[in-house]
Structure formats: structure tokens, C-alpha cells
Design brief:
The chain is an alpha/beta fold. The protein is built from 9 helices and 11 strands. The strands form 3 sheets. A 7-stranded mixed sheet has the order 5-4-1-6-10-7-11, sandwiched between helices. The protein has a two-stranded antiparallel ribbon with strand order 2-3. Strand 2 and strand 3 form a beta hairpin. It is globular. It starts with a strand and ends in a 14-residue tail after the last helix.
């Protein structure tokens, strides 16, 4: 059983409410859910948000769309993940974040595949600005390792960043990484700032109407055809 947990909240500091900003006529979080659901190796998808009134509108949006949701502490994301795992038991957990509407279903499946093939405790495809583009981050962890990390967590970083206590201790855990054909760690496809959103909105406006299942290669081809987007906001976009 492979459970994907997508963490999201409305109180982001740099771009508040970003997960409900529109992309091709729907909230960004629902466009990301749509893409994640194309991953063949995920058995269940749950969005983990906070139990605070500030996230009621997000929870209502997800409920109306039929997306399963777990609500837990705002500032203890690790506790949210454990709560979701308790509610929907699984053998492995895929960690995703709600600011990645260009996430690649194929990369999700490939990271899961590497995780299972190697028997790793934890697998990832991007860490410390190396790997696939920022915004296509995928982490896979065994449920047992996630529970162990939660039991050992003692720092704010561990509670906020969920897998911090695992990837910082490769001497304790078996950690593997899905390597990209060419390192694209400096390419920015996430949504943290207004310019990130404008970039992603341009991608969706151009590609989604003709092909809702557009690929990462489609994104690269589109950005290559638009020199004004190649370094939009001062960051590499291709």
C-alpha cells in the first residue's frame, strides 16, 4: 500500500493563499491533485492541511472536489503526516508539497520504483538544489521509517520538514536518490512567489487546453519557444 500525502496550507508567508490561486480555471491545488493522480504506483492520495480556521476554505474546496483530507497541527507537519498515516495505514508514504503544480507523474512513479527496488528507507529525486527541477520534488519513505523519525524528532526542523531527521542521517537510514539525466537543480518550477505563479500560469494557459496531461518535455519545449520566460523573475526556468 502506497499512500501519497500532499501537504498544503493557506498561510504561506511569501504568497498567502497560493494553493487556491486559479490555474486553467481551477484552484492550483486541484490541478496538482489531477497530475498526482496520474501516477500509476500511488494507491491513495490524501491532502494534509491544518486544523486552523485559516485553512477552512482549503478544506472546503478539497471536500467539494472529493479529495480526501486530513487536518492536524499547523506548525507540526510531521504530526500531520503521522495522523494521516494512522487514518489511512500504508506500507510506504510519498511526500509531496502543495506548491508544485508542475509535478511529473512519471517522476513520482520512477522514485517509487527506485525506493522499492533498492529496499531503501528513503528515496528522493532532489535534495539541496541538486536533481530534478525545484517543483518536481518527490520523496518516498517507508511507514516504519517515518514513524521512527517522528518518535526521535526533537528539533523544529524535524517537525516542519518531515523527513529532515532521515536524510540528515545516512549513517542510520538507507537513503537513495533518483538521478536526472542532466542536473536541473537550479531550474525553478515551484510556486513560492508572485513571479513563480505568473510563470506557471503561462505554462498552464499555453498547454492545458490542448492537453491536460502535458509532460515535462512539453513544458521545456514551450519555455524554449518563449525567451521571455526562460529566466522569468531572475531564475532559470529551463
Amino acid at each position: 500500500m502506497i499512500l501519497a500525502i500532499l501537504q498544503a496550507r493557506l498561510s504561506s508567508s511569501r504568497l498567502p493563499g497560493k494553493v487556491l490561486l486559479p490555474l486553467a480555471g481551477a484552484p492550483m491545488i486541484l490541478r496538482q491533485v489531477e497530475r498526482v493522480r496520474r501516477a500509476a504506483r500511488i494507491d491513495r492520495l490524501v491532502v494534509a492541511t491544518s486544523d486552523q480556521p485559516s485553512d477552512d476554505r482549503l478544506a472546503d474546496t478539497l471536500a467539494e472536489a472529493g479529495v480526501e483530507t486530513y487536518r492536524g497541527p499547523l506548525d507540526d507537519v510531521l504530526a500531520r503526516f503521522i495522523g494521516a498515516l494512522d487514518a489511512w495505514p500504508a506500507d510506504h508514504v510519498v511526500r509531496l508539497t502543495g506548491d508544485c503544480p508542475l509535478v511529473d507523474p512519471g517522476l513520482i512513479d520512477a522514485t517509487i520504483g527506485l525506493h522499492l527496488q533498492t529496499g531503501a528507507d528513503y528515496a528522493q529525486n532532489r535534495l539541496v538544489d541538486k536533481g530534478f527541477p525545484k517543483g518536481q520534488d518527490v520523496e518516498v519513505i517507508t511507514a516504519a521509517t517515518l514513524r521512527q523519525a517522528a518518535a526521535r524528532a526533537s528539533t523544529p526542523e524535524e517537525h516542519e520538514h518531515v523527513t529532515w531527521g532521515v536524510w540528515n542521517h545516512p549513517e542510520t537510514y538507507k537513503v537513495v536518490r533518483l538521478e536526472p539525466p542532466v542536473d536541473q537543480g537550479q531550474v525553478r518550477w515551484t510556486v513560492d512567489r508572485p513571479d513563480d505563479y505568473e510563470f506557471v500560469r503561462a505554462v498552464y494557459d499555453a498547454l492545458y487546453p490542448a492537453n491536460p496531461a502535458f509532460t515535462s518535455d512539453d513544458i521545456r519545449a514551450f519555455v524554449a519557444s518563449r525567451p521571455d520566460l526562460a529566466a522569468y523573475g531572475g531564475d532559470r526556468r529551463i
